[in-house]
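Worked example 4.2. Below are the chains of a multi-component assembly; read each line carefully before continuing.
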Amino acid sequence: MKESTVSKNQLAREWDSSEITLAARAAQRHVPLGGTFELTPRCNLNCRMCYVRLDTSEMKKIGRERTAKEWIALAREAADEGTLNLLITGGEPLLREDFAEIYTAICQMGFIITLNTNATLMNSEYLDLFKKYPPTATNVTLYGASAETYEKVCGSAAAFYKTIEGLEMLSSIPTELEVRTTFIKDNVGELDEVRRIANKYTKRFAINAFLNKAIRGASSEVENVRLSPRELFDLYKDNAEYYNALNDPEEIALEKNMDTDNHIGVKDYGFDLPPKIITCLAAKSMYWITWDGKMLPCGSFSSPYTLPFEEGFKKAWDRLPGLFEDIELPEKCKTCEFADGKCSNCPAILQSETGSFGTVSEYICAVALERAGRKK
Amino acid sequence: MKIKEGFLLREIADCYIVVPVGSRVIDFKGLMTLNHSGHFIWNHLIEDNTYEKLLDSILQEYEVDEDTARKDLDEFLDKARESGVLEE
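Applying the procedure described above to all two chains together yields the following structure tokens:
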């Protein structure tokens, strides 16, 4: 069929044949395909390693949560500019009294929605809401296999039982349910038990032990409780071995997909895009909007940022890469032998660990050294 | 026949993408992508339409013989039926 324009047809064909992903296509065109709305920094749990949690009084010293009306209006602007994948997170987003109002509105806008929650606040009202409008995907954090562990990690034994109740409810709705566990010294011995609980509800189980310091005014005990580089790679190895032992290609593929220690950079797509200091798709086709209304390339950054609620989404998105143009990594990082894949050379992690883009982090170097040793 | 309510055609990064909204997420997982002719047919199925009228519209829009137009239309309708977006 001869068409009046062939370009779109050609692009669709390329995409269908997986020669290029939509994310890469969006990055090439500076389309904000994937976004995160961090609706609140507040959380009913108080995890020792959390990088973002603030209590109400701490929050009020820094700024204000954006209103439901503001988030809904911003979501419309984001949809107009091309956002397809939208992650709703916090803090704990279900803690917001107006969560249902925000969620119901954005569900009508054509996003593929993922919800991050600790599940402890699930109740019949939320269940009815999610039965009517299920998120395409729901990620539930599970911090341990017992009330005792929850007490140690999250400061609440009862939260363990609430999480299980929440998982029961969420597993009854048509969503792609994933259970995620962040491992620290307090729960590292519970990998098997936690995975067993997770697998009652879903095959999708992801682990994360790459933890960085708290940012944007939050404080945590992460330096005392995170695993050493050796411990965290051992943990990932144990988890991978479990899946490999199942000898099921689907399970193995799923585990690889759930592995948070992958460093796919934009170079894998065969092109360099501004800002070059960022080695993933952040600020290229992805963005993060903080609870108080700052647009960042991803949630691990603190600054620089634009202000989408004030200047409008499009202007904020268009200005974002330029803010990172003149930022450079430390000389040692630029010339480091691990810079090509064994370390992500991630400026956001450097900023969260050291407070600046120009300072080398001993912890990040130790992680890269351990990764390099294991890749040999 | 027509497109069921609850589906939105979005143009993102120069691609046409069909997404479910609201409760349609329950029975439509993933995405449906359309090429340019698919986009043309979709727009003619927002209101109730017949096979023959659709075929006429395609023949008017594109320099194409009837066999090719039928083939493309059938391909689109098969895909739309398979994805559950068509009301007949």
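Take a moment to check your reading of the output against the notes. The first strand of chain A starts at residue 34 and ends at 38. Residues 24-266 of chain A form a domain with the TIM Barrel fold (CATH 3.20.20.70).
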